[in-house]
Amino acid sequence: MARAAENGFITFDLAGIYGPAEGFVGSFVGGKYASPVAKECQYFTKWVLRPGKITKTEVDDASGRSLVHMNTEQLDLLHFHWWDYDNEYYFNAMDGLMDLKQREQIRSTWSSSWTRGHPL
Question: What is the pLDDT of residue 90?
Answer without folding.
Answer: 81
